Amino acid sequence: MNFMVKNLIILFIAIKIISAQEIKLYNPGEKFPIDYNKYGEFKGVGTSSYEYVITNRIGLASAVGEGIFPNRDVYKNPLYKKYKNEGKLERSHWEYLNSDDLQAAFFKWATAQEEPGTKLFFLGTILEKAGLIEHALKAYYAVVVHFPGSACWSADQTFIWYVAPAALSAVKSILKYHPELELKLVDAYIEIDSKNDNDTSNDTIMVNPGKFVKWTAKDRQKDIIDLSKLKIKEVRISGKVQLVKFENDHWQMRVNGKPYFIQGLAYGTETVGYSPADGTGTDWGLEDFNKNGRIDGPYDSWVDKNKNNKQDKDEPVVGDFKLLKELGCNTIRIYHHFENRELLRELYKNYGIRVAMGDFLGMYGIGSGAGYDKGTDYKNPEHRKNMLKSVEKMVLENKDEDYLLMYILGNENNYGAGCNANKEPDAYYQFVNEAAKLIKKLDPNHPVALCNGEAAFLDKIAKYCPDVDIFGLNAYRGEKGFGDLWEVVKRKLNKPVVITEFGTPAYLVSKDKTLEDGEKRQADYHKGNWYDIILNRAGMGEGNSIGGFVFQWIDGWWKCGGDIGTGAYGGTKYDHDTTEGCGGAEWFGITSQGDGKSSPYLRQLRKAYFFYKEIWNKNVWEIYEFK
Predict the structure, then answer these.
(1) Tens digit of each residue's pLDDT (9 = 90 or more) over 537-547
(2) All domains of the chain, ordered by start, with CATH?
(3) Whole-prediction pTM value?
């Protein structure tokens, strides 16, 4: 994954594990939703000239209530004065996002000297956690109405984050998961052309705040579409793996004529003590450290049920492949080629699990001959030639294998790690299509996906990549899911979507939180993400989701650097880093390696594992609402 976004992930989720506590409001205002037309005028709706002009500031302040722009009644709240006099509001407002005292967090953020849209967004998250759902909705929606261009720097100062799309997604998510409100927001969107740089002055923002309509349980049933009654207007791919588009532009993957929804994992064994960052990485498909003639992770792993880091008598060897089958996983993602194809044949034959086979397409300098330091140049004829040879090798080795589901090109190359795709996007996406065309020539029977970093450069992908069948993206947007992703991709690309990576650490960078807290938060995050994925499948929502790949199977201990204090975030590949700078980067697994002394064999199954074991063993086509 791209760890530029890791700190925002931690920021979003940190407040989600705070113990729920009542927040007492001095002035709750009117019942949600607020009729903004009574207090001002919307201008330029749906254009880059959008603005909301307040004509009755006093009336609006009274309606929205305490803490919500433009209301300042928090200063009249006697409890606020008490908290202030007792010195409970002395720290930075950012520190209160990890506080167990939600009342103090509310007061601090309501009075913080902070960019107004950012301020309202985090007020919304605090109010939501406290159970004040309608007041949280007021805060989130106020961002959309008043501050759609609000932006702030990520915690590591590497990229600009626009707040309003996240606020809009929060509104839609709350309404989806709180049907008792009987509300739906329609026609709302915020479309930002950020020019893929960190200069907000050249960005274009199109805004429509939409409108709230009554939406009863009966109305909700209208969102469920009987696909058997729809005509098919397009079939992509002529082989056993097909992509079918219905007359309503919903997409479905089919294998051997039957619907197939990707319940995927980024699988690997991440052996402790080895690191691809320093050239000591190993190929999990060849690892046999105990010299018993079997590949270690797939066949020799065992579950440490009591988490004592020892293999007890009631903890027999089970193997990852069996654990994956029991989990309900039907596809694993392999990022770049694979030497032991016989192992993949066994994976499919004995466990029914297919493979999405990838080629890095020059990311990290791999496949181009450039190496990481020099970096792949997508305008360099020699680099392009080398990468096409790599793609050709991948296809010729796998195209006739029963285990193959699809090909995946790249891995968030547009972030520019060991390549210049971020600086030369036109050249990169043109080359992506050239690689896709080569694949189609060699193997017309399997679809081709692009793995993008988030929903960036969609205009260029639409222009240059007609031969790419599936839009894939690594996305880490918080525990509510993926926001407006489905709608934006449908509008701009009209291709099926697979989330090629999503997840969050099982570790909390907080001294007063336990590993149990971290596991629960991780499971909650996955739950919100997976439900968003399945509720946008064919027949539901935007209808363009064909599944996703959980990132990742097991913790990768190497990600925080090679030696203590000298890595990208500090830490060591021999210690499971828990420094604040690392941000939990090593803890994304839905299984753990315990104390690491029994790597690569020991597995401690986390709460997220058991969530997927429950949900993935159900019929995805019969799940219609969030549970």
Answers:
(1) 999 999 999 99
(2) 6-222 (no CATH), 262-270+297-302+316-554+589-622 (3.20.20.80), 559-588 (no CATH)
(3) 0.88
